[in-house]
Records
---
Amino acid sequence: MSRGARVIRVSGPTATLRIDGRELEAHLAPRLPGGPPVAGDLVDSRIDGDDVVVTAVRERATRLDRADGSGRRPRAVVANAELLVVVASVVEPPLRARLVDRYLVAAGAGGLDAAIAVTKTDLPHDDAELGATVALYRGIGYPVCSGVAWDAAFADDVRALIDGRIAALVGHSGVGKSTLTTALTGVERATREVSRVRKGRHATTDPRLVPLPGGGAVIDTAGVRSFHLPRMERKQIADCFPEIAARAGECRFRGCGHVGEDGCAVEPVVSPGRIDSYRRLVSAQDDV
């Protein structure tokens, strides 16, 4: 019997599925159509007694991709999320605006809305610098909240941003994504439970979808040290910077790349940090 299911987590040749309100372990069929699956995917499955098999991955409404290999091929990280929440700590580790910007571009390219959650505001930091950063991104149009990952009030602010949707939490290692996931869902260390495998014990870091009380869900992804975008055209990158896309039509010359050309209407009005992020992304793509 074939039926639809949601992928909760993928680990090697198996996946955890939610089917009719139950979580079941399933094997992935060889040469899986539409595969390989990732957390958030909708799939077709076959149940035969105690054996559950994923038989096909359905078309994705949205996807968060990162580069896979030196050729910058796209590899899906999560699928069908509606919101990307970029979690960034103000200190320990410090907020890395260029990493935030890469995630925002990935969200735009994959069809996701995006928001920013700044954590660790209880630690000593420069309030003026944080305020300027929050004002910058809010001015562009991205919702931003700040606070402490384990604090209930901050979790409520993030939950309000999610607003019943499926949200993927992403960001640098150590910023508090798992702590925030626990505060949002009540599931302790949702993505990092210790699992037994043939070679011993390891901490699972595969993205896992966890329902939110009252509706919606979060997908807590593993922390990263870097995040590289797949191969993209220059215009695709520019279109994912809302403030650049809004002024690009005013440039003196058609096809302006906003990398220092005469008559560029973008450079005078876009913040230096954001135009630097854009140009670094363009340069990285040109180097592939």
---
Amino acid sequence: METLEKDVKSKMKETNPEKREGQVATALEEQTAKIPSDVFLWASLGSMAVSLVLKVSKRDEASLFVGQWAPAFLLLGIYNKLVKQLGHDSEDL
């Protein structure tokens, strides 16, 4: 088991020795960094409000569906904040 772990680690080092982001991640991060962090917070709060309205309207399945968007919006907001603070590559700072 130990040799397998060493083998995997050595292959990972060979795959991306410079530890740089790929083209897709870099392009995505450049675009998401343009979005204000408030957008994700308001989207999360909005999905909770819509979920509440749907729940009161006795549309339980739709309420659950929309209510589950809130954590995803908050997570995207965290990602957005990290990209703005740390950049996509430490060498580019």
---
Amino acid sequence: MKRFLMLVLLLIAYPLGLPAAERVADFPVQKLARHTYVIHGPLGLPSNANRGFMNNPGFVITQSGVVVIDPGSSVESGRMVLRQIRTKTGKPVTHVLNTHIHGDHWLGNQAFTEANPDVIIMAHPNMIQQARAGGAARWIALMEQMTGGATTGTRAVVPSTAVRQGKQIEAGGLHFRIHAPPRAHSNTDIMIEVVEDKVLFLGDNVLNGRIGRMDDATFRGNLNACRVALAVNARHYVPGHGKSGDKRVVNPFCTYLDTLYKEVGRLYEEGLSDYEMKPLILPKLAAFKEWSGFDEQVGKHVSLAILELEQASFE
């Protein structure tokens, strides 16, 4: 009898089977529009301290269910998002949309298939292809490595439904329009417009307060994604990382990309190498020096911009 009572107490205290210290902390929910909510994750890289959670999951409550966007980097991130959804509604999650291949945004899918095996998980066809071709396994391993094992136990649930440029999804009386500019942040990118709420989820095509990796990106493609985003004329923009806001959220990151790429182009014409360019370009980017990741990424971005300029010369 005592053992039974102890088990009941443990289940009450830890309903998901993990001590609270081992879960992703509950982050506050911000209501952006009538149906749309966002959870702003911390800036910085995945780590043991943040247990891998550092993106901006969103969710939209429809008449019949909930549509989730980018549930995070692990099953525990996804469970945290589900807990926060339950503070707003008891409706089932019917759809999950993943903005791109980078695992900090989508490895939380597992939590939603556990909660509803019939959930529809959607992404760009290139993302599905890359994930099935080994990308999923690489991201599982990378997240475990970066977090010191905090994401261990996460399975990669790869999206099964492809969505392309211009696709409009109807769910519970609301409409979700897909914008998929090519060769942007990862060549697997979708941006999701919640039509009735005038909200645009940008994925990592736009960041706010953070300078991210451009290893899979192109500067020209990413700048085009910025133009596409602004043309939507949304009332609310949700970046992949950093705080949401109006269209002024889009402009700074796009200015960073444009300034760096143009300056690299100018100095490339003068015959300078990447290590000679960097100290000359840094003053032009002074407005971003306090952004998370700036020191780690800016030199890499100069080198990547040179490669892109060289490739463009052969097109």
---
Amino acid sequence: MAVPRFTGSPVPSGKSCDAILCGTCVADILVRPVPLGIAPGAGKLFHVDPIEVTTGGIVCNTGTAMARLGMRVAASSLVGKDVWGDVIRERLAEEGIATAALQSSDTVATSTTAVLIDPSGERSFAHHGGAPATIDIGFIRRQLPHFAQARLALVGYLGLLPGLEPDLAEALALIRGTGCLVALETAGSGGTLAQVVPALPLVDIYVPSLDEARHQTGVDDPRGIIGCYREHGATGLVGVKLGTKGTLLSPAPGEWLEIPCVAAPGPVVDTTGAGDSLLAGLLTGLLCGMAPRDAGLLGAATAAACVTGLGATAGLRNFADTSRLAGLAD
């Protein structure tokens, strides 16, 4: 089968899924207010606001954002056979995300994070990596029939998948062999350049954050970072997320697009998931056949909506509303 490359137009296919999200998925338990400067409760009972449970990780964050934007989305990951795995399945299903490729492990627990939130908004995280950390090349091989049904696969987070990172290039080659476009996302430290270099020729879309890209390349300048990726074999759309300074995209070697931030449509409540939402909008735009600049603006608008809600998904909007926010529709 000929493997498609991103060309700025829709990928022709009769596939049943627009995007399959493979990698980290987490149950987040939000606890507030917790004064982080002192020992909470000093061993005693202390009162907090109603404790909330939400979801995190790239599968849940970017997957939900893409589903809200109208994409047909599937989840590919590992959870434990526990209550938190059930929560993740239920939340994804509520968003219309297919969970047939979400496997349950008999030996490891679901990835969970207790998020302790100070009255000032500062956060501390008690995190258990759990099942997604055990995703490996064998998991990818078992999932190939699911990848074959998708137009695009997003794999992440590089830096938090220790079971897969040694075989990342082989994994992406297997996924591409199903006729599926490949996007890669980072988190944490972003991993190392040695891990990502063998995979770069296999990646159609790669837009890490500035901090993660600096850690990988040792380069500070965004154009220099993209140049480093190009020198090591990246031929697809490459970029760097620059936070409040927007996003720098390079759709092809020698091409540069500076995508500005879009103003939030309300008070900024929480920046959790903004980068994942930006990527969701960008990928959705590209899959819809938008030019890279417009897809980048859709990504910026998706991130702008995200930060108006608590957690990574509460502020997200549908495609029509997000397009208007991006200035792409009346």
